[in-house]
Specification:
344 residues, alpha+beta, Phosphorylase Kinase, domain 1, Transferase(Phosphotransferase), domain 1, six-stranded antiparallel sheet, two-stranded antiparallel ribbon, nucleotide-binding, ATP binding, Kinase-like_dom_sf
Length: 344
């Protein structure tokens, strides 16, 4: 397939993410790219992503090898999510996302995790930066730290080193123990606290080393915001139990009243939680071992509010519907598949 590479929308420690278009259909998608000689991690991610199909997981569109500027590049094509990440969403809401919208996103994250876990996959790096947003809501992305679980014969498995982001690690993971389904649930709890407060679940952390020690050995759990509803607080308490055996599964959480009773059509302006604490989402200790992509989107606003997601956003934002704006002077680079280097 011939496609055209647009501007870069994200960077990691090695890979970069660009907007791309098919040369013949003008389909827009995202391409994650790295030099072929350094592509072991991205190829591992491609193998996992290519076996997934869920409305709550960013969809896989293919892979190829191209030659660009005399370098062979390994590329993974994925669904393009036009509205950024949960971190971006938090900033748009002044540091706090309202509880109805938190419930909306939390349910979709839980649905995505329930799907992954049923497939024998642990994501291992759930956080706001790895939850991408589009017109239908939230989808789980970035499988660079993901691993197969429960099946020893998988080529990606339990022998891998611990990966992820310290700020979102479960106690057993911080201690270097098992990294599996319960760790994803803990990370989701930390992500929900970040959505609600605009701050880390661990407010006193100063560096990654002391943070990991605190998570692993202090016996403490993150403080659950008191301003949340009783159901939301109870939901978080089920996610943030220090003993992984006592932590609820994604399947159990989907039956919790906080998610089960969630009704997109019944929200009112009274549900909006006001306050705009200073956001510290960019501190270094949020970064994963292999840095996740930080999306930089250009947006424009529209006045129509014609979907449940947009109505929920309007509870805490005047931005309305978010749309990607293509620049008139956008320059595109045409790339061609190098079939001799890939046989997938």
């Amino acid at each position: 397939m011939e496609w055209r590479r647009g501007h870069t929308i994200g960077h990691g420690s090695s890979a970069s993410v660009s907007v791309a278009k098919s040369r013949f259909s003008d389909e827009v998608f995202a391409v994650k790219s790295v030099e072929l000689s350094k592509s072991e991690l991205l190829q591992k991610e491609q193998k996992i992503l290519s076996q997934l199909s869920s409305p709550y997981v960013v969809s896989y569109k293919g892979c190829d090898v191209t030659k660009e500027k005399d370098k062979l590049m390994f590329n993974v094509m994925m669904e393009y999510m036009s509205e950024g990440t949960l971190v971006d969403e938090n900033r748009k809401h002044g540091g706090r996302i309202n509880e109805p919208l938190i419930g909306y996103y939390a349910k979709q994250i839980a649905q995505g995790l329930e799907y992954l876990h049923s497939r024998g996959i642990a994501h291992c790096d759930i956080k706001g930066q790895n939850i991408l947003l589009g017109k239908t809501g939230a989808k789980i992305a970035d499988f660079g730290c993901a691993r197969w679980i429960d099946q020893a014969d998988r080529d990606v498995g339990a022998t891998e080193p611990i990966g992820g982001t310290p700020m979102f690690m479960a106690p057993e993971v911080a201690r270097g123990g098992e990294q599996g389904r319960p760790g994803d649930i803990w990370s989701m709890g930390c992500t929900i606290i970040e959505m609600a407060t605009g701050r880390s679940a661990w407010t006193n952390a100063t560096n990654a080393a002391s943070l990991l020690y605190q998570i692993a050995f202090s016996g403490e759990s993150p403080e659950i915001p008191k301003f949340l509803s009783l159901e939301a607080r109870d939901f978080l308490s089920k996610c943030l139990r220090r003993d992984p055996k006592e932590r609820w599964t994604a399947k159990q959480l989907l039956k919790h009243p906080f998610l089960e009773d969630f009704n997109l059509n019944s929200t009112t302006d009274q549900d909006f939680v006001t306050s705009s604490p200073t956001s510290i989402l960019d501190q270094d200790i949020w970064n994963s071992v292999e840095e996740s992509e930080t999306m930089d989107y250009s947006i424009e606003t529209a006045s129509s509010v014609d979907s449940p997601l947009q109505r929920l956003r309007e509870l805490g934002s005047n931005s309305g519907e978010l749309k990607f704006r293509w620049n008139d002077d956008e320059r595109w680079i045409t790339v061609r598949r190098s079939s001799e280097y890939i046989d997938r």
